[in-house]
Amino acid sequence: MSRKKFGQLLQKYLRGECTPAEKAFVEHWYGLIDTEESGQELDMNELENRLWDQIQSKMPKDEPGRVIPFRSTPLRWIGIAASLLLVGWLYFAQRQSSPVNPADSLISLVQGDWVERTNNSTHPLVIRLEDGSAVKLAAHSSLRFPTHFATENRTVYLTGDAFFSVAKMPTRPFYVYVGSVVTKVLGTSFFVRSQSATNQVRVEVVTGRVSVYKETPRKLATTDGVVLSPNQTATFFEEEQHFVTGLVDSPLVIRTSEKEQKPISFQFDDTPLAEVLVRLEQAYGINIEVENDSQKACPLTADLTDQPLYTQLDIICAALKAKYEVKGTTILLTGKGCSD
């Protein structure tokens, strides 16, 4: 550190603009002089000269940063501490004049601006985020989120289980990180469930569309991922490093806007199976296929109102002597047909 920079540091100290490290550096050296020159009043120029001389007397000219042993007095340890501070300050000054890694700055900023909430109760905890999104945090789960989202995206970190209702912002995607799994949405509602014992992460979509993929280094392209629609789910298996898609345990009728919403009737009177399945597909957004085309004409008379999807399928299969099986995100009906 040059004499000029040292003078600038003192001026900065007097203006109250020093960092904690800079302030400690000045005050330690001033305390040393004040103790040795007890009762002597110094003006600013004299103080600067004394401080600089004191620093130079403790630092060898050929090896800056190394402390010279000096007389053994009660002030010896103060001098050592001050000299160590000087070494730290010289390193700080060198860092200030060298390029700063943006990632280091980002980490420091994030650590200071992020909040972590942990639900230690036995009931879900609702957390409101600044963008209008809401998170229902399950018991014994934690959510880490920024006090202010970035302008280009919205990112949170989850440990455990939570239900997300994300405010729609097409230009600012919302990211949920759970271990190595990333869920990306623009505006939707979905569940994220993680199991630490098995290292499995499960995403279940209620509304909208969700992209789920494994986090990779920025230089590598992300190819291993899935896109989910309502009532679909994907489970990531850490050991196998792959996703398995399927349907949620209890599919719900998809909610649409009030203008587009038309009640779907689940009352059928000699209705062909093909039409019955079309109504179910429209209601739940799930693809239902029939293995035997001759089944499509089979008539169904039944009231399936207020029944969950799998119960509706049980009733249909019982009436038409068929079976159903969930294969990934598709339901497959099998049977001989009504004419056999």
TrEMBL record:
<dbReference type="Pfam" id="PF04773">
    <property type="entry name" value="FecR"/>
</dbReference>
<protein>
    <submittedName>
        <fullName>DUF4974 domain-containing protein</fullName>
    </submittedName>
</protein>
<feature type="domain" description="FecR protein">
    <location>
        <begin position="125"/>
        <end position="210"/>
    </location>
</feature>
<dbReference type="InterPro" id="IPR032508">
    <property type="entry name" value="FecR_C"/>
</dbReference>
<dbReference type="InterPro" id="IPR006860">
    <property type="entry name" value="FecR"/>
</dbReference>
<feature type="domain" description="Protein FecR C-terminal">
    <location>
        <begin position="266"/>
        <end position="332"/>
    </location>
</feature>
<dbReference type="GO" id="GO:0016989">
    <property type="term" value="F:sigma factor antagonist activity"/>
</dbReference>
<dbReference type="InterPro" id="IPR012373">
    <property type="entry name" value="Ferrdict_sens_TM"/>
</dbReference>
<dbReference type="Pfam" id="PF16344">
    <property type="entry name" value="FecR_C"/>
</dbReference>
